[in-house]
Amino acid sequence: MRHHTIPRIVTKLLIPVILLFGLYVQFHGDFSAGGGFQAGVIFAAGFILYNIIFGLDIGKSILSVNTSKSLMALGVILYLMVGFLGILLGGNFLEYNYLSNTPINGQLLGIFLVELGVGLTVSNVMVLVFYSFNDISEEK
Amino acid sequence: MFVKNLFSAIMATTIFSLISALIFLLLDGVDVSLTEAAVGAGISTILFLSTLKHTNVMVKESKTPSFPLIVLFLLLLGLLSFAVSDLPEFGKFNQTSNSQVSEYYINKSKTEMGVPNVVTSILAGYRGFDTLGEVVVIFIAGISVLGILRKRKSNS
User: Is the minimum CB–CB distance between B137 and chain A shorter than 8 Å?
Assistant: First the structure.
């Protein structure tokens, strides 16, 4: 699709905005609308748009399949680690009150880390599904 | 349902998703609206289109629906409409589902969590265990897609 001028230019203009909006939804999710799931999906949509316009080869050189797989697992592991950290620091599973000096700070830190895990997993699952769908179509 | 060309069926699904995202926005469900716009209108359209490209089937076979199927459809429609009449009135304040837990969340979220967005504090805080399950479900779904598509690759 790289030889179509209008999609290429519009994509070039839009992708920074989409990715920035994804990061905003991720890290500002506890103060405004959104959260990990929404951010991950928006981020993945921006990346998939890039792949569609500029080709899968360039996309895979930015985020390879193996990196994507590891990041996908890392999100779940991060979530679980926060849960078990709560147990180690003297609370229940996924109890964030003990993560920092005051309960409120602990809650903020816990929610931040958990949302980060959700965002990582969701965005990488979306990208991986997109990759594997297109690997098959290329082969046929 | 009435479209024969699969491409236009996919486009109709996308437009439907976009409209329902707008409806969610009007109902103040911004989080759901964001998800619907990105997943329903964005990524699933792309996945549908790549499936279409993969299968090379463009036109649906036209079949006249059989009589028992129509009867079953009407029966299910009647049952659903009957069940809808039993639902509580939309947005009514003093009913159990709107007055017990949600009131607690709305009042305590700021002091207990320090997070102004109640949706986030419920999803990641009060119902953190449910969200963990949700993330694991997404993870397993991703692994399954990888597994299914890889198996076919090695066979061919």
Answer: no
Residue A79 has its nearest CB partner, among B34, B112, B135, at: B135
Q: Model's pTM, two decimal places? A: 0.82
Give the separation between CA A118 and CA A112, rounded to whole angstroms. Answer: 10
E strands, A20-111, where? none
The answer to whether A29 touches B115, Cβ cutoff 8 Å, is no
Q: Hey, which residues does B132 pair with through a beta bridge? A: none
The one-digit pLDDT tens for each residue of chain B (156 residues) are: 567 788 888 999 999 999 999 999 998 888 889 889 888 888 999 988 888 887 777 676 667 778 888 999 999 999 999 988 877 777 666 666 666 777 778 777 777 777 777 888 888 888 888 989 999 999 999 999 888 887 555 554
* Residue B153 forms contact with A (CB below 8 Å): yes
Helix (H, G, I), strand (E, B) or coil at B5: strand
Tokens describing residue B92: 């009514």
Domain containing A56: what range? 5-139
Residues 6+ apart with CB under 8 A from B153: A135, A136, A139
Q: Which of B28, B33, B34, B53 to mutate to test the interface with A (most CBs of A within 10 A)?
A: B34
